[in-house]
Amino acid sequence: MRMLLMCLVVLSISTCRVDTDRLEWSLVLHGGAGTIKPENMTPEKEARIRTALQQALDAGQQILSGGGSSLDAVETSIRILEDSPEFNAGKGAVFTAARTNELDASIMDGKSLNAGAVTGVQAIANPISLARSVMDRSPHVMLAGRGAEAFALEQGFDTVGTDYFWTQQRWDQLESRRKAQKATSEDKHGTVGAVALDHDGNLAAGTSTGGMTNKRFGRIGDSPIIGAGTYANNKTCAISATGHGEYFMRLMIAHDISAGIEYGNQSLKASARQVIQGKLTDIGGTGGIIGLDKNGHRVLEFNTMGMYRAWTDSNGDTGILFYDK
Ligand code: ASP
């Protein structure tokens, strides 16, 4: 009997420790990784990017601190970044080699492991919300192109014309890429993503992108692929990735980081470091990830010059960074 009581005490102390280690809520955002250098930045551009990241943080924080869900925070924060022309997602999506805009997005619920994704959409201003609808209102995980847009209409989404996505910056980037005959995300960053932990201990992750400047039309990257660009599992972590998608798909980066925790008993920090600085770098891939472990502790890992990133949590720890580690 005494033994049993002692066990119960030890058990409750250790459970307590886990609980107090867990943040009430936590939110991390990214706005893409690449050759982000202070010398390429104007004060005006820096201010615009900061303002958008801050607005996205504030909106997500309001949801989470009010007891709302991590899925709502992820979707809301990403919508704000999609509406900003500064990022390669939604309004600011890059052009394909065929001078079209083809947008990809995905979202995942760490509690149920349910997920939704869309790829190659051309007439939807906020692909992250369409991905959420695929998750919540269809029996599928991923819808592509015309099928995704037909579903959007059925769900009451407004459509936008191709001119909505036209920005001088992205057009100029396409012209310079066409001259160099390359598709790239290395120097032209801006994919957006969010990971969140809510009051109920549920993790969520989402990612939205226009892909890579000068990509072939029909090319699909990692961002809408569950396990490559986005992954969330309450047992392990929530991850949103950005970078050269082909490498992230080949390594299933987001799920691989989760697997390091689940099967390798690693911390999120150790697993993310090994995958980004080890595996990704070894095969010549560039980019980064934002992540939260199941207690809401964040990781920001990248092998590029910089990554636009922002965070806030229930302990009042908040920040926005652009450059190096
Ligand atoms: N990962 C995105 C893609 O390959 C691009 C990026 O994150 O910059 O489509």
What's the tally of helices? Answer: 9
Tell me the fraction of residues in β-strands, as a range. Answer: 15-25%
- Main pleated sheet: 8 strands, mixed
Number of strands: 12
Low-confidence stretches: 12-18
Helix/strand order, N-terminal first? HEHHEEHEHHEEEEHHHEEEE
Structural class: alpha+beta
**What order do the strands of the largest sheet run in, or round the barrel if closed?**
4-3-2-6-5-1-11-12
Report the helical percentage. 25-40%
**Mean of all residue-level pLDDT scores:** 92
The coarse silhouette is globular
Distance between the termini: 53 Å
Gyration radius, rounded: 19 Å
Bound molecules: aspartic acid
Write the layout of secondary structure elements.
Blueprint: H1 2-21, E1 26-34, H2 43-65, H3 70-83, E2 103-109, E3 115-121, H4 127-137, E4 142-144, H5 145-154, H6 168-180, E5 192-197, E6 203-209, E7 230-232, E8 237-243, H7 245-251, H8 253-262, H9 268-282, E9 287-293, E10 298-302, E11 306-313, E12 318-321
Parallel strand pairs: 3-4
Antiparallel strand pairs: 1-5, 1-11, 2-3, 2-6, 5-6, 7-8, 8-9, 9-10, 11-12
Helix pairs in contact: 2-3, 3-4, 8-9
The site of aspartic acid (ASP) has 14 residues, from strand 8.
Quick summary of this structure?
The protein is α+β, with helices and mostly antiparallel strands. It has helices spanning 2-21, 43-65, 70-83, 127-137, 145-154, 168-180, 245-251, 253-262, 268-282, and strands at 26-34, 103-109, 115-121, 142-144, 192-197, 203-209, 230-232, 237-243, 287-293, 298-302, 306-313, 318-321.
